[in-house]
Amino acid sequence: MDKLEIHNIVNKEDAKYIKYDYDLSNPLLCLNFNLLTCSLLMNKKYADEFSILILGTKKQYSFKIQNPKVKQKFCYILGTFIFNSDGYAGNELNLIFSHPKSFNNKTYITPDFFEYIAKTGDIVLFKTNHILTKGQRLYTGDNYDHIALVFSNYGFISLFDSSKKNKCQFHFWGTFMSTSNYLFFNKVVYRRLNIEEKNYKKKNEIQNRIENETEKFLEQVKDKKYYLSICDILCKGKPKEYELKNEWEKAEGFSCSSLIAAYYIKLGIMKFTKTIHSVLPGDFQENKKLYFQPGFSFGPEKIIEFSN
């Protein structure tokens, strides 16, 4: 926030207190609310103090403005910027660790922060450290060999996927972490489902609809067996009859990627001209083109960093 922005909203009498108390030309702190999720907190004990909390971290910055009128307007302006930011809306939530050589300019987030920001409808991509999956990636030219859907239930994050061992099942993120299952993967990537609606109320309504429809879909397909058709992958045939009718309970089974494709078709988020059984996990990576219905997109890949 610079001097002009403050002076345009606060009258000269109030603005002079900010000018005198703070050197606006040499800020001590710069926060990009589009890249960080922040919350504005008021101190109930001391009326002249307030704080900015960076959610998902232990970082909290406290401020003190003795003039109550200036503090009230200053917090109103600050709150408006936070409320209207991409970070608050949930499109660009991340913590950035900058290290050009080792991190290759990629965006990294912590497992705890992933658990905090993840919502129903997002996806997680996996690069498995198994010799067979390495061969699969070499053949397809993709970066990933497995995919899961994020499902949030009362704040608890689960991953819903299909595998030969577990069929179509839920896996709690907490269990994934406590059992160190992440050691089976060379790379785990998070992608947010963006709802491209600027009206905050309408955006919430769309997200609520997604959550309700997700529960119905998962009930339809839960415990379906793992099904992978090499013929469909190679031939990329037309959608089957139950796909065209959105009758997913009639499907014989799903691979991890065909399950995600079916989900997005069911919710009216994507469209596919080929059978879902030809879809691979790598089709959901950042450099591939997906056919979204208007109003939806994926955010960039964010690598979940499990090391301390």
Describe this protein's structure.
- With 308 residues, the protein is α+β, with helices and mostly antiparallel strands.
- The chain has helices spanning 3-9, 12-21, 68-83, 86-89, 100-103, 111-117, 131-140, 173-178, 200-221, 230-235, 241-244, 256-266; strands at residues 38-42, 49-54, 60-64, 107-109, 123-128, 146-153, 156-163, 167-172, 185-191, 193-195, 225-226, 253-254, 296-298, 302-304.
- The protein has 2 domains: 3-89, PH-domain like (Roll), CATH 2.30.29; 100-304, endopeptidase fold (from Nostoc punctiforme) (Alpha-Beta Complex), CATH 3.90.1720.
- The strands form 4 sheets. It has a 7-stranded mixed β-sheet. It has a 3-stranded antiparallel β-sheet with strand order 1-2-3, covered by helices on one side. The protein has a two-stranded antiparallel sheet with strand order 10-13.
- The longest helix is centred in the last third of the chain and has 22 residues, at 200-221.
- It is elongated, with a radius of gyration of 23 Å.
- The model is unreliable at 1-11, 15-26 and 91-104 (pLDDT under 50).
Can you give the helix content as a percent range? Answer: 25-40%
Question: Could you state the order of secondary-structure elements as H and E?
Answer: HHEEEHHHEHEHEEEHEEHEHHEHEE
Q: Low-confidence stretches at least 5 residues in length (pLDDT < 50)?
A: 1-11, 15-26, 91-104
How many domains is the backbone divided into? 2
- CATH superfamily caption of the largest domain: endopeptidase domain like (from Nostoc punctiforme)
